[in-house]
Write a structure and sequence with these properties.
It is elongated and about 135 Å long. It is built from 17 helices and 18 strands. Helix 13 links the parallel strand 16 and strand 17. Helix 4 crosses helix 6, helix 9 crosses helix 12 and helix 10 packs across helix 15. By secondary structure, the protein is α/β, with parallel strands linked by helices.
């Protein structure tokens, strides 16, 4: 049985702020249970989902050494969907109203979490073959493993994988402060280790010391090796190219199942037209959009940031909504300027634009099911999950060709009658506008083609099954490598013991030789003495005779 431990700062259903939580919570369920014992460890936040806060069993308490600090750590355990989940408890670090805070607080918080993960493993009697770390919050796990735990036989053959979900977020803070927090020696803060542009970089530490690095799509793995996409770490990532793998994320097909989703208005029963029409009409009625079966309804479920292309939308929004028959519904939170911009946009276009500045899982599912098109004009997108959810529910993605969007959405080709969505290449507002106009044209003028685009999209398999098989290959490679090293070390020790035994035997043999020689000499001397005595006796007799 291969043992894998997922270490992450957020995991559904306990706590979620973004796609990391979906990955860490969903992927473990898709490994082959007869071959893999996959478990999860995360912080126990005070702000976690209260429905899961009560069914926790406290299994141990200990102290975690963080340089000169000795901090309490409790471990609570529960099972969710058959997966064992450990939660690290410390109210000093995890009692805030949100999982993340300012970096000067989060640097120590997640250094503690990383150290606690390694500290509690022997007490849990669980020695993972691989610890799978996620983003900068767990970047210190491979570092601590190398610097402070490697001498202990329990940890010697543990291998680490570090997954980059978004290279933009790196956990950078002052070197002296991170030294004080971690207790790591000075040599760990050189330019080829944790130091990055004058600060300590916790993500960089993970990338330097992890045995393997993954990103969440093949295109993103290529992009982060360039100066444009590397966020200052492209040189390191190019240097570790042989350890880098791009594995596309998936979605949980049990949670996102249009035929069995209690959050949408009408389930999918095989009739695409009826399914889309009913969900669209109900979505329009419930959210103050003019009910119109012929409207081209565009949806967005997104963080309101530059990365998600909100600056393009801001620049071109009036031209989009002026296209005859176009409606928009947008759900998300983010930067205040974009929140204010969208509120104003909705106020000036009542009946055509509906905006929700918060997050609701129910509204999100209804947007995926009820819209005709789903807009994702990202500046960069490591993988993206929303386009996968849109495809699953028959909503056609309209995306920029970057990262995982490029890997998962095939652009429509009207001549070959292929494709699952629409795309534009350059990060340009008018290219995005042209894409939307073209999608609207196909929607209106070629409804049969539009339905075929939907059908092809719904037939795609972006479940976690494929991704899990790719991770299994990676884990197997690392475990086989570790076992090979272990066997080589055992053989070396065996040979060394054999050599020492032979050496000892030889020394004992050599030690016996002088003793035998002395004995022989004594025997020879005694014999000579006897002979001399015997030779003298006749002489005495002859003397007497005379």
């Amino acid at each position: 049985m291969k043992k894998i431990l997922f270490a992450a700062s957020e995991v559904v259903p306990f706590i979620k702020t973004g796609g990391l939580a979906d990955v860490a919570g969903s992927l473990p369920k898709y490994f082959q249970a007869d071959e893999y014992d996959v478990r999860i460890i995360l912080p126990k936040y005070a702000c976690m989902n209260s429905a899961y806060a009560t069914d926790l069993e406290r299994v141990l308490e200990c102290q975690v050494d963080l340089n000169w600090r000795s901090q309490y750590a409790g471990v609570l355990v529960t099972k969710v969907n058959g997966i064992t989940c450990y939660l690290i408890d410390n109210e000093y670090y995890f009692a805030g109203p949100a999982p993340y805070d300012n970096i000067y607080l989060d640097a120590e918080k997640f250094a503690f979490f990383s150290k606690a993960v390694l500290t509690v493993l022997p007490m849990l009697d669980f020695c993972p073959d691989v610890i799978h770390c996620h983003d900068w919050q767990t970047g210190l796990i491979p570092v601590f493993l190398k610097a402070q735990f490697a001498a202990d036989p329990f940890y010697r053959y543990i291998r680490t994988v570090h997954t980059i979900h978004n290279l933009k977020f790196q956990g950078r803070w002052y070197i002296d402060a991170v030294k004080d927090i971690t207790g790591l020696p000075d040599e760990y803060f050189s330019y080829d280790k944790l130091e990055s542009y004058g600060k300590a970089n916790l993500l960089k530490g993970g990338l330097v010391y992890a045995d393997a690095i993954t990103t969440v799509s093949q295109s993103y793995a290529e992009e982060i090796q360039s100066s444009d996409g590397g966020e200052g770490l492209d040189g390191l990532i190019r240097a570790r190219n042989n350890s880098l793998t791009g594995i596309c994320n998936g979605i949980d097909y049990h949670e996102f199942d249009p035929s069995n989703d209690s959050l949408i208005y009408t389930p999918f029963t095989g009739d695409i037209k009826a399914f889309k029409a009913e969900n669209k009409r109900r979505l329009q009625e419930e959210h103050d959009l003019i009910p119109d079966d012929n409207a081209f309804l565009i949806g967005m479920v997104t963080r309101l940031t530059d990365q998600k292309g909100l600056d393009l939308l801001e620049y071109i929004k009036e031209e989009i909504i002026s296209i005859p028959g176009v409606q928009m519904i947008i759900l998300g939170t983010g930067e205040a300027r974009y929140e204010d911009m969208l509120r104003d946009f909705a106020n000036r276009h009542k009946g055509s634009v509906s905006v929700f500045i918060h997050y609701s899982e129910m509204i999100a599912h209804r947007i995926y099911a009820g819209c005709d098109a789903f807009l994702m004009p990202s500046l960069f997108e490591p993988c993206g999950l929303s386009q996968l959810m849109a495809l699953r529910y028959g909503t056609v993605p309209c995306v920029r060709e970057t990262g995982g969007l490029k890997d998962t959405v095939e652009a429509y080709n009207e001549f070959e009658h292929t494709g699952t969505g629409f795309s534009f290449h350059n990060y340009n507002a008018h290219e995005m506008l042209y894409m939307i106009r073209y999608a609207n044209k196909i929607f209106r003028d070629a409804p049969g083609e539009w339905e075929e685009i939907i059908r092809r999209g719904m037939a795609c398999d972006f479940s976690w099954n494929h991704s899990a098989r790719e991770y299994e290959k990676l884990y197997t490679h690392l475990i086989d490598e570790a076992n090979s090293w272990k066997k080589a070390e055992e053989d070396r020790i065996k040979e060394e013991k054999k050599r020492l035994a032979e050496e000892e035997k030889k020394q004992k043999k050599e030690a016996k030789k002088p003793a035998k020689t002395t004995a022989k000499k004594k025997t020879a001397a005694a014999s000579k003495k006897t002979e001399t005595a015997a030779a003298k006796k006749p002489a005495k007799t002859d003397a007497k005779k005379k």
